[in-house]
Design brief:
Layout lengths: L4 E6 L20 H5 L5 E4 L1 H4 L4 H9 L6 E5 L2 H6 L6 H9 L9 E7 L8 H10 L4 H8 L22 E4 L8 H9 L3 E2 L1 E3 L14 E6 L12 H15 L23 E6 L6 H12 L14
Parallel strand pairs: 1-2, 1-9, 2-3, 3-4, 4-5, 5-6, 7-8, 8-9
Helix pairs in contact: 5-7, 6-8, 9-10
Length: 302
Amino acid sequence: MAAQIRIGVSGWRYAPWRGAFYPEDLVQAKELAFASHQFPAIELNGSFYALQRPSSYARWAADTPEGFVFTVKAPRYITHILRLREARAAVANFMASGLFALGAKLGPILWQLPPSLPFDAALLEDFLALLPHDTDAAATLAQAREDRMHGRELLQPSRPWRLRHALEVRHASYRTPECIDLLRRHRVALVVADTGGRWPELGDVTADFLYLRLHGAQQLYASGYSDAQIAQWGERIRAWANGQAPKGLETAAPPDTAPRRTERDVFCFFDNTMKIHAPENALRLARYLQLGTHLEAAPPRA
């Protein structure tokens, strides 16, 4: 199967998008349906702030067309409160919370670390070892959920499929070959993050897919990307999809140590969502890459 390139946005509920990206007469309940016909993937970020319910995941799956994929942002309780420590029960709760209701629309799971969490090899090793890489392992882990999950859980997937994980780091201490080696051994993708220089911006390939988050070229979450910057990211994505290493990106480990492949899937999400830049930039990048229309015509607005 040829490598898939999916360009999307982080979330879909933003007031500045209404009447600009979203038509004036589009009701809010139809925004996901509309957005999912413009992009082949969206980063689901409500799960970062609180555990969602199986009914919500099932509704989101029903609102989106066949072939669409959600990536799911893991709870900040695990990454920011527990800070990855003694996280087994919390990860089990997350796996039991309804992810399986997305079915084949479940894409990679994103783990975003806080800027205040430095690299700790033993801590990261223990955490990465927890992560399930298929739904059978996820269902087994979900059985260890806490009692408070009873009545709001989904413990069995409809069919088996693989799970992918991506880790976004925000402390300079992760800029080390030891971190890259850990991620490669556990088959977890290091997020390639464009943060206007605020946090590490590393291009190390650590899994069989790439996960990009473009937070804003200058101002975090707010500034857009010029045509030249769109082209630059487009060429990088082309290189990764073809199994090559793009030029001009720092790596923490020597580039020639990356796992070799003839092709890789690429997920790229624009997180400059405070204004209207994210959907506009995502559509421009898709056009630059000549990805074309992948889904059926947009749904009715009413």
